[in-house]
Design brief:
The structure holds 2 protein chains of 2 kinds. By secondary structure, chain A is mostly helical. Chain A is built from 10 helices and 2 strands. Chain A has a domain of 132 residues. In chain A, strands 1-2 form a two-stranded antiparallel ribbon. The longest helix of chain A has 31 residues. In chain A, 41% of the residues are buried. Chain B has a domain of 159 residues. By secondary structure, chain B is of the alpha+beta class. In chain B, the strands form 3 sheets. In chain B, strands 2-1-3-4-5-6 form a 6-stranded antiparallel β-sheet. Chain B is built from 6 helices and 10 strands. Chains A and B meet through helix 4 and helix 5 of A and helix 1 of B.
């Protein structure tokens, strides 16, 4: 089996669109609403979730044959929390400002349904390499949607991208003002809804039959 | 050994927990010095920011020595006592009986004027709030204030850290006549007068937390504040 066979490629790329965790499986919505007011925390959250999903999938896949079935959920929880704590500690040491911005959400990575969902559905039944690809793919699919939503929320809500002002002062003098509603969580839900709508309009096979 | 038996399950769990515990201990002890340095530099940065000296976290250690001329510890009667002001955890002091509290005061010299900086500690909606308030030489007029929090809601309560909220405190007076009132937080743009600021919409509980924090903490310093009052 080659490392990047078409089947493996599908594991990596599928979750970016047709098998996207947020858009199609509607997983990981809570954190998608919470950290998308600005692009920077969205990016860091996306990377963190990708790292945690990838590493936990590999670890669980490596020990899948020795994990007793009855306590497998607890084992998953312990491994995922360990990775989350390590990420939290690393952020506090090397990216202190970002760790402050993400504050409670780092700890909440563990509650992200995508991670346990992928372990339970994929990693426990597959070899480490496909599990790694599956984990990275799903993490990136999550990060992609976070960035799309954060792009519109930050642009329209704060007039900045990654903290850099992009809307010219001239506009503000003409009477343009930032939309404060964009900063609040409800707009994230509406934006995710719009993204799902556009996505399904482009991929008609995802629309449920009546 | 039977993989689904009780003995194996117990053994597996014990080994797994031990391995995870060792890994976490190593990571935590290894990164601790770096994390502590970040926290201390941020504290210096916050203290300086309350007297409107804005420096990066990396440069805060040097700037702190330049601007902060004295650090003293006072008790509730306003008398100076021995102690390391920077190392004092205001959160722990506020839990003690008022007479036993060790209260740090940082004295800064900015643009030729003396400023008194007081740490504050209180409670918001989700967790602790803290901040630094600087007073002019009259120990009445607020020169600047900074606030920070553990986990207030981003976009709502967390807005207390922003300039728009903080700058409202500039020039406010903490004494109303002869009574220490600190600064009240009023809802919905009604703030008027030298002892009131506007609350954050959607962050009322956090805003009220700031109000209570200022009053509680400045009250501890009341004797010290009155010492040189006219």
């Amino acid at each position: 089996m080659t490392l990047f066979s078409s089947k493996n490629g599908q594991l990596l790329l599928g979750p970016l669109s047709k098998n996207n965790a947020i858009l199609v499986q509607i997983l990981g919505i809570c954190s998608a609403l919470a950290v998308t007011a600005k692009m920077e925390p969205a990016l860091v959250m996306g990377i963190s979730v990708t790292v945690v999903t990838a590493l936990s999938s590999v670890l669980l896949s490596l020990i899948r044959d020795i994990v007793p079935t009855r306590v497998r959920i607890i084992v998953q929880l312990v491994i995922v929390s360990m990775l989350v704590i390590i990420i939290d500690q690393l952020l506090k040491a090397f990216a202190y400002d970002v760790s402050k911005q993400l504050s409670v959400f780092v700890g909440l990575i563990i509650t992200n349904c995508i991670i346990m969902g992928r372990i339970e559905a994929f990693a426990l039944a597959n070899r480490p390499w496909p599990s790694l690809l599956d984990g990275i793919g799903n993490g990136l699919g999550y990060a992609l949607i976070l960035l799309i939503v954060a792009f519109f929320r930050e642009l329209l809500g704060s007039g900045t991208l990654f903290g850099v002002p992009v809307i010219p002062d001239l506009f503000y003098r003409w009477g343009y003002s930032n939309n404060g509603l964009m900063i609040l969580p409800p707009m994230a839900l509406i934006l995710v809804g719009i993204v799902i709508w556009v996505h399904r309009a482009k991929n008609k096979d995802l629309i449920e039959q009546q | 050994m039977n993989k689904e038996g009780n003995r194996y399950t117990f053994l597996f769990s014990v080994v797994m927990v031990l391995v995870v515990a060792i890994v976490l201990t190593l990571v935590s002890t290894g990164l601790q010095p770096r994390q502590n340095a970040n926290v201390e530099n941020e504290k210096r940065q916050n203290i300086l920011s309350s007297v409107k000296v804005n420096v990066s976290r990396e440069a805060s250690a040097g700037a702190f020595d330049t601007y902060i001329t004295r650090q003293i510890v006072v008790n509730s009667r306003g008398e100076e006592v021995a102690g390391d002001a920077f190392a004092i955890d205001m959160g722990k002091e506020m839990k003690k009986a008022p007479a036993e509290r060790l209260l740090p005061v940082f004295i800064a010299r900015v643009n030729g004027e003396t400023k008194y900086i007081f740490p504050t500690r209180g409670t918001g909606l989700w967790g602790p709030l803290w901040g630094y308030v600087s007073l002019n030489e009259d120990k009445n007029t607020i020169f600047g204030a900074v606030f920070d929090h553990k986990g207030e809601t981003p976009g709502l309560g967390a807005e207390i850290t922003h300039e728009e909220f903080r700058s409202q405190f500039d020039g406010k007076q903490i004494f109303e006549g002869d009574k220490l009132v600190a600064v009240r937080v009023e809802k919905g743009g009604k703030a008027a007068g030298p002892h009131e600021v506007d609350a954050i919409s959607g962050g009322t509980i956090t805003s009220k937390g700031v109000e209570a924090m200022l009053l509680d903490n400045l009250t501890c310093y009341e004797s010290f504040l009155r010492q040189t009052l006219p």
